[in-house]
Amino acid sequence: MPLEGHVEGRYSRAMATNPLGVHSFVWVGGWDREQCESAVASTVEAGYDLVEISGMNPAAIDIEHTRGRLEESGLGATVTLGLPVSADINSSDAEAIERGRAILMGALDVTSGIGADFLGGVIYSALHKYDAPATDATRRNSAAVIREVAQEARGRGVRIGLEFVNRYESNLLNTVQQTLDYIDLVGEDNVFVHADVYHMNIEERNFRDPLLACGDRLGYVHIGESNRGYLGTGTIDFDEVFGALVESGYDGAITFESFSSLVVDDALAVALCVWRNLWDDNMDLAKRARAFMLERLPAS
Ligand code: MN
Predict the structure, then answer these.
(1) Measuring CA to CA, how many Å separate 109 from each of 46, 61, 96, 132, 170?
(2) Crossing angle of helices 136-155/176-186, nearest 10°?
(3) Which has more pLDDT, 4 or 216?
(4) How many CB atoms lie within 10 A of CB 235?
(5) 164: in domain
(6) In-domain check, residue 13
(7) Helix or strand run (H / E) with residue 241
(8) Which among 159, 173, 267, 294 is placed 20 to 30 Å from 146, CA to CA?
(9) Is 257 a catalytic residue?
(10) Residues with CB under 5 A from ligand 1 (ion)
(11) Does the pTM of the predicted model rise above 0.90?
(12) Residues paired with 218 in a beta bridge
């Protein structure tokens, strides 16, 4: 007889403990008070444990208001962003690096201020199609800023996540191995890999080997389909993805990410090339995504 809660032949753990999240761009294109209230309510209605908030414009976020809505709802939160070209710390432009440092410190203020403990995304580089490779100099400049942010974050109990992305969105970190090497360069123990299977699907040989290679340095996971729409409508092997997450013992957050021209932040839509409409009903999308992920995690 199989153990209670054990899914025959697939998983070694009896229960999934991963908090499940949804990116706020499934609901809203920004984070003013009204958008915050709408996104929090929708995230709760769809059954998720946390909402991922875009920190691209930290000055526009009312920290106290967001903290209050999160506490009322019992919802967790994370903050992610991609740096703009004008604030690229993966560069040799001292003014841009300083602007990037300021954005990251502002996003850290938002993260700790709203009661969250994770700041991730493309924070080590611009979210941008570069026209030349990264250099040792730009990599070191980036790592120096991330080291400073991580040191400040440690005192606030915040973990830093580096989301490696496909070659069209950064020239610095495109794979798990590059990210692990960069984390070694940074040298701070609160810096983790932020993996996104949409990007892995483009750059890695498979999902299992790189996910297992992260070990306990896997800190956050984005689940997205190859077309960034409904899970199960593209080419990603989610049985392999979730099998590897379970095999690795990963117990951190798993957040669904999907983008459509129906709900966009203008700057991010351009950076991510969100040109077409992948869905109309975001509640249906989010509920189906949660069910899809739960089906592939050990029964709780
Ligand atoms: Mn992502």
Answers:
(1) 28, 10, 20, 33, 25
(2) 70
(3) 216
(4) 8
(5) yes
(6) no
(7) helix 238-247
(8) 267
(9) yes
(10) 196, 222, 257
(11) yes
(12) 193
